[in-house]
Amino acid sequence: MLLSLHPAALSFEPNVRTDAKLSREFIASVRERGVLQPVVAYPGADGLVVQMGQRRTLAAVECGLETVPVLLVDEPKDVDRVVDQIVENDQRAELSTSDRVKGWEQLAAIGLSAAAIAKRTGAKKADVATGLKVAGSELASRAGERFDFLTLDQAAAVAEFESEPDAVKAIVAAAKTGGFEHTVQRLRDHRAEADAFAAVRAELTGARVEVIERDALEWPAARLDNHRLDPAEHVGCPGHAAYVGYGFGTDRKAEAIFVCRDVVAHGHVEASAAPAGVKRAMTEEEKAARRVVIERNREWKSATVVRREWLRAFAARKAVPEGAERFVLACLLAGDHQIRQALEAGWPLLRELLGHEPDPTDRFRAGAGRVGQLLEILSAASPKRSTVLTVAAVLCAWEDRTGPHTWRNPSTDTARYLGQMQSWGYELSDVESLAVTGREPDTEDGSDTEDTSTGPRPPVPAGSVGSVD
């Protein structure tokens, strides 16, 4: 039944849209032409209740319209009401992240699973699951309401670090100004490192081993492995101690580094055998420089995770980016050594990013037999897709040979690689920018990097956008 009623006679029940977002353009349109599409309403306890058309009704009241068209329907079930509001609002002024999350939360409270919500609203199941995690965090929910620029993934990151106020500030600041992916990855790596360091310290404390700081290791204190001393046989020495650090090798896992507080006094080494130069302690400038190197290495490790996820998405795309052919030709004409190494190893990183199981021997023996996996993919690829895979192969060849040495030795070749990724939408972190330009990024306060020699530290927020408390 179609009625003509005064807009003020209509009432509202809970709506997934918490902010009606009545723009000047929308109000002007309603004032000029009225409400063209009927408001959908149903009988409630105290009169007609708006099911769909909240913005139209409010705009009509704002404009002082005497009547609006109202389509009278039966009272909907709660599930149908919320689903209809989500779908209808999405087809008009897009819901904010906070609004959409609240809608999914209402549906979950009614009893719908994430899969059912996704099916009823047309959303991705993964997005719904993420949204429900956000809804379960009071801090993330408040952040979504206060900072309407937060995406679903960014709000989820707030929920992930809700117990760490400084981390939350860094996430919100990065979401607003840039560098979000890098910031979150640094936070995750820091937390993982801190947990690993804490576990090793707890193990040492449980074994009644004195734990010292790495910077306290100055001659005649020394690492046992530097003097071929067995930690198990050294336990009874009065100088037995350890610090938490990283061992040698590619794994770089946190582990106990056993030391003797005085290898000379405890008879392990002759005083005359002291290494050259050990009498001089490091200056404050040298310590500061060492701390910067350690922190930059950590930043590069985190950036590598973000960079490879970007490459994974790049390798899956179908459209050829602008300048792709030129980039590949430049790398071939330059005779990039990295391409030859990838060719000899069977393109290990490319195969990994395309979903093949990584082979730990790829770096050490010929990989011609493995190229068959790539040829199978190529046989079914369109010309554009083939070009994308060609570019991805070159990028992966370069990426596979990057490491902390990359930022320490900026070069035009590195600038060509990372600069091309940047032109195709990849956001460089500070340490990657350093690898491209050779210049340290500017800091807000100009202060030195915090000591990270014996444990990780969280990233410093690039800026503050206020508390979400």
Automatic annotation (TrEMBL):
Q: Report any one BP term from Gene Ontology.
A: chromosome segregation
**Gene Ontology terms: cellular component:** chromosome
Q: Where is the ParB-like N-terminal domain?
A: 3-90
**Region (Disordered), start-end ranges:** 431-469
What Gene3D superfamilies does its record include? 1.10.10.2830, 3.90.1530.30
Pfam families xrefs: ParB_N
Q: Please give the start and end residues of each transmembrane region.
A: none
- What domain of life? Bacteria
Q: Where is the composition biased (Acidic residues)?
A: 442-451
Q: Which InterPro entries match?
A: Chromosome_partition/occlusion (IPR050336), ParB/Sulfiredoxin_sf (IPR036086), ParB_N (IPR003115)
Coiled-coil-forming residues are none
In terms of SMART domains, this protein maps to:
ParB
Q: What is the protein name for this chain?
A: ParB-like N-terminal domain-containing protein
Q: Which organism is it from?
A: Pseudonocardia halophobica
